[in-house]
Specification:
The protein is α+β, with helices and mostly antiparallel strands. Helices cover 35% and strands 20% of the residues. The protein has six helices and eleven strands.
């Protein structure tokens, strides 16, 4: 009986590890196969459509807001793959969070526009209720020191791919979070700006997030401003085809 139980336990861990590696391979392959010219063009179009819509809503915005019509291409941008968590309403700390992660097809990629020194001067297609986060010297948002610092600190870990989950952004859990993660090897790590440390995905959820928060708040994704009607978010898995940002 002891041998049988040992076999079951070993098989369970092999299965969990196999799925973790499978989803990481899916994310890496999606990134490697992505037509970045197509994705940067789609992100820029969404940004311009949002800017035009805001101008229709507000004459003050129309008069004073700087145009976000900027050069954005694969040579001056860092792609951040947007992911989301699904089916977490029955989550337990013993679960493997890799089972719940998938690509966010509505947002696909966020882009940090950078200069030669990797200083960020714009964030485009950021998955949040107001998606375009454009910064210049006159913008009320100030400057991009925080975003540049974030990128440089994550890059010190030599990530293969930077990820972001918008549902992790905000104030639930122990600290205010920004949602950034990264892949290295066969693991996903959550970078926590508060203590400048990285935590393996499962360790992060077990040590930083209350179980009720994971169950209640992780199953959401934001609706791009140009598609919003009565709400700015929805439960994951319910995106209409016309809102998806997936290049052929």
């Amino acid at each position: 009986m002891k041998v049988k139980h040992l076999i079951i336990i070993v098989s369970m861990f092999i299965s969990v590890d196999a799925y973790s590696q499978e989803i990481i391979s899916v994310l890496k392959d999606f990134y490697m196969d992505a037509d970045m010219d197509c994705y940067t063009a789609m992100a820029k179009k969404r940004m311009m459509d949002e800017h035009y819509l805001r101008g229709k809503w507000s004459s003050i915005y129309q008069e004073y807001a700087p145009s976000p019509d900027i050069v954005l291409n694969k040579n001056n941008s860092v792609p951040i793959l947007n992911v989301k968590f699904i089916n977490t309403k029955d989550y337990n700390y013993s679960d493997d969070m890799y089972d719940h992660i998938t690509i966010d097809s509505v947002w696909a990629f966020t882009f940090f526009r950078v200069d030669k020194r990797m200083k960020v001067d714009a964030v485009i297609n950021l998955a949040m209720p107001s998606s375009t986060y454009f910064i210049d010297k006159t913008d009320f948002a100030g400057n991009t020191k925080g975003t540049t610092r974030l990128l440089k600190r994550i890059n010190k870990n030599n990530p293969e791919l930077i990820l972001r989950c918008a549902a992790l952004m905000g104030g639930f859990g122990k600290y205010v979070d920004d949602g950034y993660m990264y892949i290295k090897g066969d693991k996903i790590y959550k970078y926590v700006m508060y203590d400048r440390k990285s935590y393996e995905l499962n360790d992060y959820f077990r040590n930083f997030l209350r179980i009720e928060d994971t169950r209640c708040y992780l199953n959401i994704t934001y609706i791009p401003l140009i598609y919003q009607k009565d709400e700015n978010s929805r439960h994951t898995g319910n995106a209409p085809e016309n809102e998806k940002m997936i290049c052929p």
